[in-house]
Amino acid sequence: MTTYMHPVLFKAAEAGDIDPFENYQTCLDQLLTPDENTILHVYLGNQRREPESSIKLFDFVDKILEMCPPLLFQANKKGEIPLHFAARFGHSNEVRVLIDRAKARPTDPESGVTEAKKMLRMTNEEKDTALHVAARHIQAQVVEILTKEDPEFSYSANVHGETPLYIVASIMPRWSEERGKVIDEILTNCISVDYGGPNGRTALHAASRVGDDETARKLLEKEKTLTKTTDENGWSPLHYAAFYDWSARTVKVLLEYDASAAYIAETEKKRTALHIAAIRGCIDAMKEIVSGCPDCCELVDNRGWNALHYAVASKRTKAFKECLGSPELARLKTKKDDKGNTPFHLIAALAHQQQQWGLVIYERGSGGLNKRKLSVNDIYSGNFGEIQY
């Protein structure tokens, strides 16, 4: 049978009207919506911002908990307790009330964990604590309260592999002042910070992905080895920064802390961050990498392709021409891959699809013969088409 809450009581809970509940004969913890939300869930879920008077918030929640203490830990169908709701909607006063109520309860003699910490560490069905929720919704004041109340606890990943720090680092827009405060509170207050994210990524991967050089610098000030951590595909944070046009400043920060990151190759195709920047046509990122680590231009992938091969594969003639303006990259134009093809052999094959590449061949073409004894001109004029991108 579906549970439901009487409309009069539901509306009273929404409004924070205590009167209908003071003389209610049944236990208040039995008043449930179909999703098993209690009157506290209903109240918190309908207060989209802090009430103009914090007294109203304090009075309703405090009085309800005084009448029915079990509501403090009572979860809905999704495993969310009132603290999850308070964290989601940024009710900092409510968070303090709930914590104070939990502190007033006796400590578990077996575990030695206080009821307040027990509540702070409770997770919903997706294994989110209230801190996960507050981080996701960028509630800086709530994050400050939660992390200061339980600084020694290492908030582990939820079912999606996300820690609170990873969650907020991955959020766009990246320049939100409130978002920056959330990151600062976690890094400052938590004694043992968990940087983890899904698929082997870290918060530094997340910050690099959104082009947040400021957060990247903060993370590296706390843990410099994050530059070397690779995900399931072997991608480092530098790979992610190199992938996006807006991340050149992040590329610079990562290399300032660890230039060796430019030499990390992914697991399968063995591409470095320079290869990734090249195929994406991210010239600014390429310049940062080459400037900081010029000899990384020598690295090739599992086919023997260098960064200039990848610049051709980007199919952006402008990007390719800019690469030739760099002495380190220009030297690669005669370098052959495992099949003996130089970047200009690739251009000759591509020119059949895009005519503008034909001009590049006549302007700068060279390369000798590949392993099939074909020159650049042979491929361009004969349409042999044996080159795949």
Secondary-structure blueprint of this entry?
Elements: H1 7-15, H2 19-22, H3 39-45, H4 54-67, H5 82-88, H6 92-103, H7 115-121, H8 130-136, H9 140-149, H10 164-169, H11 177-189, H12 203-209, H13 213-222, H14 237-243, H15 248-257, H16 273-280, H17 283-292, H18 307-313, H19 317-324, H20 327-330, H21 343-350, H22 356-364, H23 376-382
Question: How does this structure look, described?
Answer:
The protein is mostly helical. Among the domains are: 1-122, Serine Threonine Protein Phosphatase 5, Tetratricopeptide repeat (Alpha Horseshoe), CATH 1.25.40; 305-389, Serine Threonine Protein Phosphatase 5, Tetratricopeptide repeat (Alpha Horseshoe), CATH 1.25.40. The protein is 49% helix and 0% strand. It has helices at residues 7-15, 19-22, 39-45, 54-67, 82-88, 92-103, 115-121, 130-136, 140-149, 164-169, 177-189, 203-209, 213-222, 237-243, 248-257, 273-280, 283-292, 307-313, 317-324, 327-330, 343-350, 356-364, 376-382. The mean pLDDT is 90.
